[in-house]
Design goal:
heterodimer; A: alpha/beta; Rossmann fold; 2 domains; six-stranded parallel beta sheet; four-stranded mixed beta sheet; 12 strands; B: four-stranded mixed beta sheet; electron transport (chain A); repeat (chain A); iron (chain A); 4 iron, 4 sulfur cluster binding (chain A); 4Fe-4S (chain A)
């Protein structure tokens, strides 16, 4: 099977990437400011709702029901969309999904398409696949555009360019758009408006993701702020929507739960500026050809895991990223995946589905297990529990590792008082490796530990030695 | 043979889902509020929070006498008395280019939501197709007091999901640059809501 592009090719393991990111003071400054701001706003937006907990419970239950009845609901969705003039396609993996979309673009003779920001298309590496097939995809969300023009990678689910400040964005726009612009956010937004306007008015094919799909009516729902979504969803002749098979809600009524949970959790607004809902095609209004591509790409494998499957409840609000102390310090790119932060740490390794992959297997360890992510999750995904569950899987996949050998050795040492004292004396030698009382790099097998954390230098004298000297009666 | 390949993928995905044997879920407990306090006052306050222009009026033509813009789009079925003098009204059919050059658009709405300050268009009476309220830079929306639902659940219950729906909460905005809110990226930069009592 081909590699799943949910992780970026050649990315280092999380501890290695994090070590580099931690030294980037600009990045840490940009992130601290951004996540700090959004944390405060979210808390205020949620505090306004005295039924927030009941909404969270309902959100969890609706999504669990979706996962329990996924096969029948997907077939129902397919029937409703088809009945309204849409065409439904199924894709087992990224490669299959990309081929379907490329073929649809070619059928329309499109060499350029406009795109609404979508995690699903980022996950399958659609832009790169289209480019290889001769179709250029233009990202129209401001943050995605910043990432695309900067030849950069996204670092946040909602605000992919959160790691960039206004000066950096100005530099990217001037270089790639060939315009003079100040670093005022309003001027930068205006530059993007001018840059994209012509494309919206002339491009014949658009590609979007979906926040929700309603099984009983066949309606697809996209939430956004800028209006770039509305442009893509209504002006072109052909609309291709790519969505993960778990993005369903069973009924139109169920949407009432998520239209309340998502905006407050993600942008801390009572409601996002624009939400578009469409069902198949509407004669005389909007695209007249509609294709829905349903992608599996690791989701059915995730569904098999009774603990891990709750990650599929995720509605991609990114609240967990904004409260995570690890994310705030390392940034999203350290996770080496389109899904960063706490949700990425549990979703990415499951979608990759291979705990022998060192990079994916490092992600469940990218957490302090503080639990803040669970507290803010609008669909109550117990991220800390899934993290520890996946850590166990990683250890199991490793079999006899340096870590398990070290643990066995430790058991042998702790098993005898004299062996323990000898080991302590030997351990005191480690003081020679320490600087400022910390050891940042031990020789193997200790390097397995110090690759991700420092070790305090051992004291000059062990407690047992001190006790013998000072308290022991002859 | 793409059809056959597509069928194979469909069958395999459905089979994988069944193989996962996910146990049935508990019934959904809807312990949240389904109704909101509603009302003109709350709706007006919440719309204004998005930095939209909001006016409570009794006479629509009089309120529209101050309408800005020379070329203003009006859907086919707006009430005749809304088409006040002194405005160059544009009527369908209009090309994308003509819409893009228009100064503004005047519509009604299907439903409004007091809790969130949202207006919802469904392509019904006095609303036109979706492009009309998207391309001109200035959108004036007339909301009758009886169209205001209290909460999101009340609003969804009044809407027909198979119609093309657009939920609008304030003007187009982005927060992508250092989380500073900037109004007017691609959609209308100015939203004016006239609440008719």
């Amino acid at each position: 099977m081909a590699r799943n592009p949910v992780t970026w090719l050649g990315s280092p393991t999380f501890p290695k990437a994090a070590r580099v990111a931690l030294n980037d003071t600009q990045l840490r400054q940009n992130l601290r400011k951004a996540t700090g701001t959004i944390r405060g706003r979210r808390a205020a937006a949620v505090a306004e709702m005295d039924d927030w907990e009941q909404l969270r419970v309902a959100g969890e239950q609706v999504k669990d029901d979706v996962l329990a009845r996924l096969d029948t609901l997907l077939v129902q969705l397919e029937e409703s969309v088809t009945a309204r003039g849409g065409t439904v396609h199924w894709a087992r993996d990224a490669e299959e999904a990309n081929r379907i979309v490329l073929d649809l673009c070619r059928a329309e003779n499109a060499t350029e398409v406009v795109k609404v920001k979508s995690m699903a298309t980022a996950e399958i590496g659609l832009n790169e696949a289209l480019e290889a097939g001769g179709v250029h995809a233009v990202e129209t969300d401001l943050a995605e555009l910043i990432v695309q023009l900067g030849d950069d990678r996204p670092s946040h689910i909602l605000v992919p360019a959160i790691h960039r400040n206004r000066a950096e964005i100005r530099e990217i726009f001037q270089r790639r758009m060939g315009v003079e612009v100040s670093d005022e956010p309003a001027d930068l937004a205006e530059a993007a408006r001018t840059y994209l306007r012509e494309k919206f008015l002339t491009t014949k094919v658009a590609i979007s993701g979906a926040n929700f799909a309603v099984a009983d009516s066949g309606s697809i729902v996209v939430l956004e702020s800028e209006g770039n979504g509305r442009m893509c969803l209504t002006l072109p002749d052909t609309l291709i929507t790519v969505m993960g098979i778990e993005k369903l809600v069973p009924t139109w009524q169920d949407l009432e739960v998520f239209l309340q949970l998502l905006p407050r959790s993600s942008t801390a607004e009572r409601m996002n500026p624009y939400t578009s809902v469409w069902t198949g095609v509407t004669p005389g209004d909007g695209p007249q050809r509609f294709h829905l591509v349903l992608i599996d790409n690791g989701r059915t494998a995730t569904l098999q895991d009774s603990v891990g499957r709750q990650a599929l409840r995720c509605i991609r609000c990114s609240a967990c990223l904004n409260v995570c102390p690890v994310y705030e310090r390392t940034g999203g790119q350290s996770y080496g995946s389109v899904y960063p932060g706490p949700i990425g740490a549990i979703l990415t390794p499951q979608l990759v589905g291979d705990m022998h992959d060192p990079q994916a297997a490092s992600l469940p360890f990218a957490s302090s297990l503080c639990g803040a992510c669970f507290e803010v999750c609008p669909v109550r995904i117990d991220i800390p529990s899934v993290l520890t569950h996946l850590r166990a899987e990683v250890v199991e996949a490793k079999g006899r590792t340096a870590e398990s050998v070290a643990m066995a050795a430790a058991a042998w040492v702790f098993g005898s008082a004299s062996r323990y004292e000898k080991a302590q004396k030997a351990g005191a030698l480690a003081r020679f490796l320490a600087r400022d009382g910390r050891i940042t790099s031990l020789p193997w097998p200790g390097s397995k530990w110090t690759s991700s954390r420092d070790v305090p230098a051992p004291p000059a004298q062990s407690f047992r030695a001190w006790w013998k000297e000072n308290r022991c009666q002859k | 043979m793409p059809e056959v390949a597509g069928t194979a993928a469909r069958e395999e995905i459905l089979r994988r889902i069944r193989d996962a044997r996910v146990p049935a879920a508990a019934p959904v407990v809807r312990g949240y509020h389904r109704e909101g306090p509603g009302g003109v006052e709350l709706f007006a306050e919440r719309v204004a929070d998005y930095r939209a222009v909001v006016r409570v009026v009794t006479d629509v033509p009089e309120a529209l006498s101050s309408l800005r813009g020379k070329d203003v789009v009006a859907p086919d079925d707006v009430p005749d008395e809304w088409l006040v003098d002194g405005v160059g009204w544009l009527r369908e059919p209009l090309s994308i280019g003509e819409l893009d050059r228009a100064d503004g658009v005047l519509t009604g709405c299907a439903v409004a939501i007091a809790d969130t300050g949202t207006i919802v268009l469904d392509g019904g009476v006095a609303q036109g197709r979706r492009a009309l309220t998207l391309l001109p830079d200035y959108h004036v929306c007339v909301v009758r007091a009886d169209q205001i639902a209290g909460s999101v659940p009340e609003a969804l219950a009044r809407l027909q999901p198979t119609r093309p729906l657009t939920f609008i909460s304030g003007p187009s905005a982005t927060s992508d640059i250092e989380l500073n809110r900037v109004e007017g990226v691609h959609g209308p930069r100015v939203l004016e809501v006239l609440i008719v009592t």
